[in-house]
Amino acid sequence: MIHRLGWVLRTLLSHWRRHPLQGICLLVGLWLATALWTGVQALNEQAGDSYDRAASLFGEDNQSVLVSPGNQGFDQQYFITLRRAGWPVSPILQGSVTLALPDGPAGRRLQLTGIEPLSLPTQGSLVGAMQQVDLAGFLVPPGRTWIAPDTLAELGLASGDTAELANGQALPPLQTVESVPPGMLLVDIGVAQRVLDEPGRLSQLLVDSAFAADQPALPEQVALRWDVRGEGDLQRLTDSFHMNLTALGLLAFIVGLFIVHAAAGLAMEQRRGLLQTLRACGTSLRLVVCALLLELLVLALVGGSLGVLSGFALASLLVGDLAASLRGLYGAQVAGQLVLDSQWWLAGLAMSLAGTLLAGGSSVLKAMRLPVLAWARPQAWRDAQARSIKRLAIMGVLLLLVAGVLIYLGEGLVAGFMLLGCLLLGAAWLLPLMLSLLLRSGRKLARSPLGHWFWADSQQQLSGLSLALMALLLALAANIGVGSMTEGFRLTFTDWLDQRLAADLYLRPESQAQADSIEQWLSRQPSVQAQLPSWQVQSRVGDWPTEVSGVIDHPLYAQRWPLLEAAPGAWEQLAQGRGAVVSEQLAYRLEIELGDAIEVETPSGIWTLPVLGRYADYGNPKGQLLVSAEQLNQRWPGLEVSSIGLLVDDEAISELVAGLQDNFELGGFSLIDQAALKRYSQQVFEQTFAATAALNTLTLGVAAVALFTSLLSLADARLSQLAPLWSMGLRPSRLAWLSLAQMLMLATLTCALAIPVGLALAWCLVEVVNVQAFGWRLPWHWFPYQWLTLAGFALLAVLLASISPVWRIVRVGPTQLLRQFAHDA
Amino acid sequence: MMHRLSGLFMLLTMLGLAGCDPEQPPADAGFAGLGEQAEGFTQVTPDRRFEFPADHGAHPDFRIEWWYVTANLTDEDGREWGAQWTLFRQALQPQTPQGAEAGWNSAQVWLGHSAVIHADGHKYADRLARGGVGQAGVRVEPFEAWIDDWSLAQAGDTQGQDSFSALSVKAAGEDYRYQLNLTADRPVVPQGEQGYSRKSEGDQASYYYSQPFFSVEGAIEWEGERHTVSGQAWLDREWSSQPLAANQQGWDWFSLHLEGGEKLMLFRLRSTGGGHYYSGTWIQPDGETQPLAPDAIELEPLGETAVAGRDVPTRWRLKVPGRDFDVTTEPLNDQAWMGTTIPYWEGPIRFSGSHAGAGYLEMTGY
C-alpha cells in the first residue's frame, strides 16, 4: 500500500516538475496568506500579552481597589488605618515621568508605579517574580527601579544604569524583572513619593481578592470607595484597534487563498488525464485521494513554514509603529520587541493547512467524481459557467441582503465587521455575473467577426479568471475603502487640529506655585495677549473613564472651539456654571442628547450637569467634558493648574519661549508651541495608519499574484482556443495584443466595479465601524484622484501579470499551434 | 531566646538575605543567616544593664529583635490550649532611632507570627510589614507592639509599675482569633549573665530578658466558637546583631512552668560539627535567677514524630542534675508545625518526673 502510494505520489508530483511556475504560484499563495495572517496575529498577540502583563502584575484581572471618590490622590494614613483594622490592602502611587535620554530630544514618557512589596496581594505575577530578586536592595536606599527587559532594551539602557528624569530627579539603578509590563517603571512607594513629589500621598490601595469578594463596608473615618480596575479599560479602548487589524489580516488571508485555489484548480485540470490513466491502470480511488491529500499537506507545511517566518519578520517590522501608535492613542504600553513563539508555528501551520484544504479541497473532490473513462469535454464549459455564475450571484445577492439587514439591526463592532464581510464577499460573488452581463452587452456593439470573437472569448475566459478578478476586486475595494477613511480622517483631523489648537503656546506647570509665578511673569510680558489656564481631573461618567476639564470664561472658546451641535448661548451658560459641553465619543457611549443631564463622580458626591453642546475630540479614547473652571475648583478643592494656553504676538513667540525656559526651566513637553504639538499629533496619526497602509499595499500585491497565477494557468489552455484564429491567418503578435486587450478590459471593468464597492465599504467604515469603535463620525469626503491612482496601479499590476503569459503566445511557434489545432479538431 | 529566631529565618529568606534552604544553610552564615557579620550594627557586650521602660522598645541600631509570648491555657471544659504571639524586627541596614521612624526611608522590616493549638488542631498565620509609617512598630509609652491588627499592648494604667505588668495581646488568622489579658506581680527577669546571653563558646550573644510569671485570662475563638481560657504565659524579649556562630544549624528550646512556682528555661544550639552549646536559667518563684552552665544541662530526644515530611523529636528527657531535675516531656499536639515559608515546630508540652508542669517547646532546623 505504502509502496503503491509512493508510486502514485511520484506520478502526481511529476506534474510540478513540468510546471514549476505553477508550483511556485501555489506556494507563494500559501506563503503570502500565512505570512500576512501570522504577522497580524503576532502583532495582536504581542499587544494582548503586554496588556496581560499589566493586568496580572498585582492580581487577576479586575483587581479590586480602593480609590478616593474624586479619583484624586489621598493621604497614606488611610492605608495605616485600614491595615490596623485588619484589611489586607497595599499602597500604590502612580504617575508618569519623562526619561531624559541622551539621544531623544523630547525624552520618553513612562509610567512610574510605586509599590510596597511586603503587603502586595499574593495573586499577582509580581509577587512570584520577587522571589528571584534581591528584595532588600529594592527597599533600602538607593533602592532599585524594576523594568521589563524589552523596555530596557528599547531605551538603549543597561541593567545597573541610573536613569535621569526630565525634571532632574534621579531614579534608583535599573534592574530587569520579567513580569513588569512594558513601558512601566516599578519603584518602592517611598521613591515614587519623592520622584513624583507627592510626599505621604497614594493613588490607590490594592485589596486582596478573597477579602474584596463581598466588598465589606469601609470604616467611617476612611473616605475611600471601592472600584474595580484591571486592564478592562485598556482592553475596551484598544479592542477596536485590534479588531481592525484582525479584519485586515483575514482579508489578506482570503485573498491569498484565491491564489491557492487558482493554482490548485489548474493543476487539477491539467492532471485530469493523468488521473484517469492512473485509475484506468487499476489504482484505487482511495489511493488517488490519499496521494492528493498528502500532496496538499506537504504544500501546506512548506508554504505555511515560509509564511510563519515571513509573518514574524513582517510583524517585527511593524511592531515599533504599532507600539508607538497604541501608546500615542491609548497610552497603552506594548513591548516593541517580538519573540518567536512555538504557538505561532502551530497556529500558523494550522491556518495554512485549513486554508489549503479549503482552497485545494474542491480539486480533490473533483478527482473523486472523475469518471474513469470519459474524456474531458471542454465544449460543456458554457453551460457549466452559466450555472456556476448564477449560483454565485444568488449567494452574492443573499449576502448583500444580510448586509442590508445588518445596517439596520446590527449592534456593536462585531456586527460592523460582519457587515463589511458580507458586503465584500457579496460584491465579489456578484462580480462574474456583472462582468458577464457587461461582456454580453459589449458583444452587441461588435461589428466584425473578430470583434464578436473578442467579446465571446473574453466571456469564456471569465470562468478561469473570475476567482482572480474577485481577488482583485476585494483588494481594490478594501484599498479604496480604507484609503477613503484614512484620507478623510487625515483631512478632518488636520482641520480640526488647526481649529482646536488655537493658542500659540501651551505650557504645563510642575506645581501650583510654579503656575502662580509663571502667571505673574506672563502678565508683565506685553506680547502675551491672553492666558488660558485650565484644570483637569480624571473621573468617571457612567462608568466610562472621563477627563473633566475646567476652562475660564474667554471669548476665544466661542470663536475657535468648534461645536458639532450646541444649545443657544452654550459658552455663556458654561461660563456661568450652568452645564457642560461633552466630547462626541462620550455622548455616543452614554447615548447623551443635547439637554440631557450627565452625572460626574466628584469627591463630594455626584455632580449633575445638563449637556450644552457636543464637540469632536478625535483620537481621544477617553471621554472628555468641559465645565466652568470655577465650578470645577469648588467640587475638587485644591486642584492645581494643569496647563496654560497662551495667545502671543506671532513675532514674539520665540523670545517668549526663551524667556520662559530661562526663568522656569520648562523642558520637554512642559512647554510646547502650536506647530510642535501639531507635528506630534500628526506623527501619532501617521503611526496609527502605518500598519494599515502596509497591509493594504500587501493585499493589493497578493491580488496581483493571484491574477498572474490565473493568467498563467489559462495561457496553456488558451493555445487551443487561439490556434483556430491563427489558422485563419491572424499573426501571433496580433493574437497577443488581443489577449492583452482582453485582460486589460476585464481588469478595467473590475476596477470600475471596485470603486462603488470601495465607496460602500468606506461608508460602512465611517458610518458604522468607526462610530462603534471610536465613538466619532467623520465628515464624508470624496477622493477621485486616489481612486484613479489605485486603478492605475491595479492596471499596471495586471499588465505586469499578463506580460509573461502573453509573451508565450507570441513565442509559440507555428508547429505547436498547428499541433494544437489538429489535436483539437 | 534564640529559639524565636525561626520566624526571622523566614523573614530573612523572604527578603533575599538568607537566600537558601532551611535544611542546608550556608556554611558560613549560621542558621537563617544569623551568623552573618553585622557590620555597622551595635554589638552585644557583657557590661550593659537594662533600663526600663526604654528597653521594652525597639533597638534599631541592632540587627534583630523580638517580642515573644507563649501561653499554656485551659478552657471552661478543662480542655488544654496553647497560644503564640510573636513580633520580629529586622533592620536591613544600621539606622538611628530617628531614621527608623522616617517614613518609607525606614530600613526596619517587621514580621508577626501567631498560632492557636489544642490536642486536635493547630492554626497559625503570619504578617509582614514595613516600619516607619505606622503599619507595624513598637511604642514605649504607653507600651504597644503591633503589626496590622495584631497587638501586644499595655492594659490600662499600670500605676507606676513596669508596663509589662499588665498587657493585652490579640491576634487573628483564618478561622481563629484570641484576646488574652496578661498580668504579672513580679518584675521581669534577666537571662544569662545580667541579661547577657551567650550563644556559643565564641562571642556570639544577645540581650535577653523574660517575664515568665504572667497569669492569663481571656478568650479564644476557634472556627466561630468562643472559649473562655485561663492559664499562664511567658514573654521573651531579645535583641542582637550576630547571635549565632557560623556553624550553628538549629536549636531546641524549652520554657517550663514548674508546679512549685519555679520557672526553667533550657536550650541547646546544634552545631554542624557536633559539640552542641547548652544554656539555661533557673528562676525561683520570687524571681531570683541562676544561670545554668553548659555542662549542668542534659537534653535527650526520646522519640520522633513524622510531621510535615520530617522526623522531629517531640518527646524529650530533660535533666539538670544540680537541681535534681529529671523529667520527660510530652507534646499537647505533636503536629505543632508552623508551616510558614520557613517552617518550624512550636507547641505546648507537659512534663513529669522529678517535677511536673507545663511549658512550650520550639525546634528549628529539622
Structure write-up:
The complex is a heterodimer of chains A (825) and B (366). Among the domains of chain A are: 63-229, no CATH class; 509-665, no CATH class. The mean pLDDT of chain A is 80. With 825 residues, chain A is α+β, with helices and mostly antiparallel strands. In chain A, 62% of the residues lie in helices and 13% in strands. In chain A, helix 2 crosses helix 11 (285-330) and helix 22 runs parallel beside helix 24. With 366 residues, chain B is mainly beta. Chain B has one domain (2-363): AttH-like fold, CATH 2.40.370. Chain B contains 2 helices and 23 strands. Chain B has helices spanning 5-14, 97-100; strands spanning 64-75, 80-91, 108-118, 121-130, 136-139, 144-147, 150-154, 166-173, 176-183, 189-190, 196-198, 205-222, 225-240, 248-258, 263-271, 277-283, 289-292, 298-307, 310-320, 325-331, 337-338, 344-353, 357-363. In chain B, the strands form 2 sheets. In chain B, strands 1, 2, 3, 4, 5, 6, 7, 8, 9, 10, 11, 12 and 13 form a 13-stranded antiparallel sheet that branches. In chain B, strands 14, 15, 16, 17, 18, 19, 20, 21, 22 and 23 form a 10-stranded antiparallel sheet that branches. In chain B, strand 1 (64-75) and strand 2 form a beta hairpin. The radius of gyration of chain B is 19 Å and the shape is globular. Residues 1-30 of chain B have low confidence and may be disordered. The chains are: A alpha+beta (825), B mainly beta (366). The A-B interface holds A 76-77, 79-80, 83-86, 116, 118-119, 133-137, 139-141, 188-190, 193, 200 and B 14-17, 92-93, 103-105, 107, 109, 128-130, 133-135, 146, 148-149, 172.
